[in-house]
Amino acid sequence: MDGLGAPHLSTMGVQRTDPMNPLLWPLRSLANGLGMAWWARVQTHDPDMTYWFGPFVRRQELGSALQPFLDDLRREAPGSVEHEVLRTRRSEPLTSDGRQA
């Protein structure tokens, strides 16, 4: 319990959900279909590529999943990596193209 007598979330059996949990895909698909899903558009230079990473129902879930993706991408040593978080609709969970974003 905290100082106010309220139980902590951890003692109530509440756990953070894994954002990549396959059971969340129907909800993610619905949010994406409505254009309410969170996506990251990641652009690299040298080579010039655009990657779409998502969909996520909550921006916070995208943020926690995005960092490992960016770290992995940076290990490939592109000239630069930029990203933008967007609420949009996309047709595929991860796509890459030669800069036609």
Number of helices: 2
Unreliable stretches? 1-16
Distance between the termini: 49 Å
- Radius of gyration, CA atoms, in whole angstroms: 17 Å
Proportion of residues in β-strands: 25-35%
By secondary-structure content and strand pairing, the structural class works out as: alpha+beta
Tell me how many strands there are. Answer: 4
The protein's oligomeric status is single chain
Q: Major β-sheet, in short?
A: 4 strands, antiparallel
Determine the fraction of residues in helical runs and give it as a percent range.
25-40%
| SSE string | HEEHEE
Strand order of the largest sheet: 3-1-2-4
Q: How would you describe the shape?
A: elongated
Q: Average pLDDT, to the nearest integer? A: 75
Task: Tell me about this structure.
By secondary structure, the protein is an alpha+beta fold. The chain has a domain at 39-96. It is built from two helices and four strands. The protein has helices at 25-33, 59-75, and strands at residues 37-45, 49-56, 80-88, 94-97. Strands 3-1-2-4 form a four-stranded antiparallel beta sheet. The longest helix is centred in the middle third of the chain and has 17 residues, at 59-75. The radius of gyration is 17 Å and the shape is elongated.
Characteristics of this structure?
101 residues; elongated; disordered N terminus; 4-stranded antiparallel sheet; alpha+beta
Task: Describe the structure concisely for a colleague.
The protein has helices at residues 25-33, 59-75, and strands spanning 37-45, 49-56, 80-88, 94-97. 26% of the residues lie in helices and 30% in strands.
